[in-house]
Write a structure and sequence with these properties.
The chain is α/β, with parallel strands linked by helices. The protein has one domain. It is built from six helices and seven strands; from the N terminus they run αααβββββαββαα. The protein is globular, with a radius of gyration of 18 Å. A five-stranded mixed beta sheet has the order 1-4-5-6-7. The longest helix has 16 residues.
C-alpha cells in the first residue's frame, strides 16, 4: 500500500480528523478560534463530486480525495443552515502538483455552484466556508505556491506579494484563495505534539525523523 492510499484510509476516521485540526490547523497555523468554534463530535464525511466545465463545453467531474463537514458549535441540527458548517476537502499527494492553487479554487467555486444550481442565491443566504488541506508525503518539501496570485509573473506597477507563502490568508483562505499544506518533510522536531494521534502519525512517516522514532 502506498503512503497516498494509506493516508486516505486513515483520514476516514473522525478521531484522526479531530487530531489534525487541533494540532495542525489550530496549533501550527493559528486557527484555534476557528477550530474551537466547530462541533467536532458531529463530523460527517460525504462523497462529493463537483462538476466543472471541460473542453468543448462538456462538464467534467472533480472530486477531492476526502471531504469532511463540521457544523458550527451551538447550533441545533434542525435549525442549521447549509452554510453553517466548515467544509474540509482533503487532497493527498506524493508528488508536487503545480496546478494545486487552481484546482483548489475551481473546487471551491464549483462546490458552491453545485449546491445552488437551478436556483438563485437569496440575499439572506451565505456560502459555507471551505478549508482545503493538502497532505503531502514526498521526501522533498512541497514547492508549490498556495495561492494563485503567487503564480503570476511580475507586472508593471504591481509589486509581488511580500510573503511567498503566508501561513493563513484569513477569510480569503476559507473562500477558495489558497489551501493549507501538511508537508510532512518540512516539519521540525518542535512542531510535533506527542499527545496527538495525527502528530504521532506524521512523525512516524517523516522521511528523516521517522527512522529515529521507529
Amino acid at each position: 500500500m502506498t503512503n497516498d492510499q494509506a493516508f486516505k484510509d486513515i483520514f476516514g476516521y473522525p478521531a484522526v480528523v479531530r487530531g489534525l485540526l487541533h494540532w495542525f490547523a489550530a496549533r501550527l497555523h493559528g486557527l484555534t478560534e476557528l477550530v474551537d468554534g466547530l462541533d467536532l463530535s458531529r463530523l460527517e464525511r460525504r462523497n462529493e463530486q463537483t462538476m466543472l466545465p471541460g473542453t468543448g463545453g462538456a462538464m467534467m467531474g472533480q472530486a477531492s480525495d476526502i471531504v469532511w463537514h463540521a457544523p458550527f458549535a451551538g447550533i441545533v441540527e434542525a435549525d442549521r443552515k447549509p452554510w453553517q458548517e466548515l467544509v474540509m476537502p482533503w487532497e493527498f499527494q506524493t508528488e508536487p502538483n503545480y496546478l494545486m492553487p487552481l484546482r483548489t479554487r475551481a473546487y471551491v467555486d464549483g462546490q458552491h455552484l453545485e449546491r445552488l444550481k437551478r436556483r438563485r442565491l437569496a440575499s439572506t443566504e451565505r456560502l459555507a466556508p471551505v478549508l482545503p488541506v493538502v497532505v503531502y508525503t514526498g521526501e522533498a518539501t512541497w514547492p508549490v505556491p498556495s495561492r494563485v496570485e503567487h503564480m503570476l509573473p511580475s507586472l508593471p506597477g504591481m509589486p509581488r506579494p511580500s510573503a511567498p507563502e503566508p501561513t493563513t490568508a484569513g477569510r480569503a483562505l476559507l473562500s477558495g484563495d489558497g489551501y493549507l499544506t501538511l508537508d510532512i518533510a518540512a516539519l521540525r522536531p518542535d512542531d510535533f505534539d506527542d499527545g496527538n494521534v495525527m502528530s504521532l502519525l506524521a512523525r512516524l512517516t517523516h522521511p528523516r525523523l521517522g527512522e529515529a522514532t521507529a
